[in-house]
């Protein structure tokens, strides 16, 4: 029998602390180590703030991990390896580690890379995931939009700087949730105007959280949006 702890990937929902699952809550309570993405400037990460209400930091080993936003392969390799080894040290001590991530741990999540690296470097570690409510579910609820009915086709797509690809995504689906839309909002507005679908789009930042903003799409030209912003287009 292995004396290693278990690594949990916990989806903690889109922002509202009440939207975590009962299972995620139980794993948080039972795990001695809570791992979370840590910002370099020291402020709490989004996932950390979601679960803050459920954690007494004096009773838990709070393990902040730095995941740099860079394309420098050497920096990424160094920092990711460091984070994996920090987690493994806790697991080696027989402690379960709950890695909290907003949304779902297996959908566009930081935990995916953590899981793959841990499996590669330490295949003896048992890894379990607890699914969470994703931002697109939260957005549908807050906006009152039915994303799919009957045989409707839905897509979840990271928005990027390609007019034709973004246009095709909208034209070939009944509903599209564009994540990471902040960096290309002007291009997306151009696509919507050309398709005469501006009134079919909604944009939300930090959905369901106490910092949520539901934007007026017609007033978004040139606006500097936060990273955790998505667009829902429902024809």
UniProtKB/TrEMBL annotation:
Pfam families: TP_methylase. Keywords: Cobalamin biosynthesis, Methyltransferase, S-adenosyl-L-methionine, Transferase. Pathway: Cofactor biosynthesis; adenosylcobalamin biosynthesis. GO terms for biological process: cobalamin biosynthetic process; methylation. GO terms for molecular function: cobalt-factor II C20-methyltransferase activity; precorrin-2 C20-methyltransferase activity. Its EC number is 2.1.1.130, 2.1.1.151. Residues 7-216 form the Tetrapyrrole methylase domain. It comes from the Bacteria. NCBIfam families: cobI_cbiL. Belongs to the precorrin methyltransferase family. This is Precorrin-2 C(20)-methyltransferase.
């Amino acid at each position: 029998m292995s004396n290693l702890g278990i690594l949990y990937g916990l989806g903690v929902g889109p922002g509202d602390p009440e939207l975590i699952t009962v299972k995620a809550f139980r794993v948080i309570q039972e795990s001695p180590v809570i791992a979370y993405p840590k910002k370099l400037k020291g402020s709490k990460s989004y996932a950390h703030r979601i679960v803050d209400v459920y954690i007494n930091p004096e009773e838990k080993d709070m393990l902040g991990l730095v995941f740099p936003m860079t394309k420098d392969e050497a920096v990424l390799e160094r920092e990711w390896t460091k984070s994996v080894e920090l987690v493994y040290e806790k697991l080696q001590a027989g402690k379960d580690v709950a890695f909290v991530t907003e949304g779902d741990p297996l959908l566009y999540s930081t935990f995916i890379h953590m899981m793959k690296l841990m499996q590669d470097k330490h295949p003896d570690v048992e890894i379990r995931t607890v699914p969470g409510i994703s931002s697109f579910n939260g957005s549908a609820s807050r906006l009152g939009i039915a994303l799919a009915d009957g045989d409707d086709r839905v897509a979840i797509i990271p928005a990027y700087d390609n007019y034709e690809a973004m246009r095709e995504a909208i034209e070939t689906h009944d509903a599209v949730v564009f994540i990471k839309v902040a960096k290309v909002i002007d291009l997306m507005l151009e696509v919507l105007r050309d398709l005469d679908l501006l009134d079919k789009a909604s944009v939300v930042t930090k959905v369901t959280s106490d910092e949520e903003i539901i934007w007026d799409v017609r007033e978004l030209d040139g606006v500097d949006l936060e990273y955790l912003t998505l667009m829902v287009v429902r024809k």
